[in-house]
Design brief:
This is Secreted protein. Keywords: Membrane, Transmembrane, Transmembrane helix. It comes from Streptomyces iconiensis. It contains seven helices and five strands, in the order H-H-H-E-H-H-H-E-H-E-E-E. It is of the alpha+beta class. It has one domain: Nuclear Transport Factor 2, Chain: A (Roll). Strands 1-2-3-4-5 form a five-stranded antiparallel beta sheet. The longest helix is centred in the first third of the chain and has 17 residues. It is globular.
Length: 228
């Protein structure tokens, strides 16, 4: 039986609430301030060693803005977010989580609830709709459940896009309003389904990560274009 690969469901409501539009505009606006050279992001607004930002841009985390962790011993649809102040480390973990799912044992609602725990608590910079766009809708998820489809992921590397690094070097203080970083992650997603079916495909995405000083990083959103 052919695999039902993860795609955004066409049955999902295509309308966007005004509050979601404002949050998305705020997040993209902050990123555009430091990613002026990325034409893909500009178009969106109108419709190995990893180089690091300045050392004081994301000091070691001491607290977290995430929702409380689930009770120990309970099985979760989505792994808990890591406690780290490094945007690249966090983005790599987030990408692996976005590319991993188990439709055999968890519902679409449970999966989305797990992803929600990764989001920043600052609503102004949280674009959860861009995250849900990476997840199959309920109808497709139901078919995936019937097909016992699940996916695992391996992350190869994560890096700041070249335009981001250039902008940071030219204006190190430009990020200090929201502390939202752009990180591009590449890897591979492996799929499996009933009847010993299996497949794999390369994946890449650019993730917006908020890492305020003295706080753990949190997911801000998923950018619509992959920034090199």
């Amino acid at each position: 039986m052919p695999t039902l690969k993860k795609r955004p469901a066409s049955s999902q409501d295509s309308s966007i609430a005004p509050s979601s539009v404002l949050r998305r505009a705020a997040m993209i606006g902050i990123l555009l301030a430091v990613l002026l050279a990325l034409a893909g992001l500009l178009a969106y607004l109108t419709r190995s060693e990893t180089p690091q930002p300045p050392a004081d841009a994301h000091p070691k985390a001491t607290t977290t803005p995430h929702s409380p962790a689930p009770r120990p011993g309970t099985e979760e649809a989505v792994a808990a977010p890591p406690r780290t102040g490094d945007p690249v480390t966090f983005a790599k973990a987030a990408a692996k989580t976005l590319w991993t799912y188990d439709a055999r044992h968890f519902s679409c609602a449970e999966h989305l609830a797990g992803l929600k725990r990764w989001m920043t608590g600052e609503k102004k910079y949280a674009d959860f709709k861009s995250v849900t766009g990476e997840v199959p809708g309920k109808a497709l998820w139901s078919r995936m459940h019937d097909n016992r489809q699940h996916a695992t992921a391996k992350v190869d590397e994560g890096h700041f896009p070249e335009a981001f690094k250039t902008a940071m070097s030219q204006d190190p203080g430009g990020i200090t309003q929201a502390y939202v970083y752009a990180v591009t992650v590449t890897g591979k997603q492996s799929l499996a389904w009933k009847g010993s079916g299996a497949g794999a495909e390369p994946r890449s995405t650019t993730i917006a990560v908020q890492c305020r000083p003295h706080h753990d990083c949190a997911l801000s959103g998923v950018l619509p274009e992959v920034a090199p």
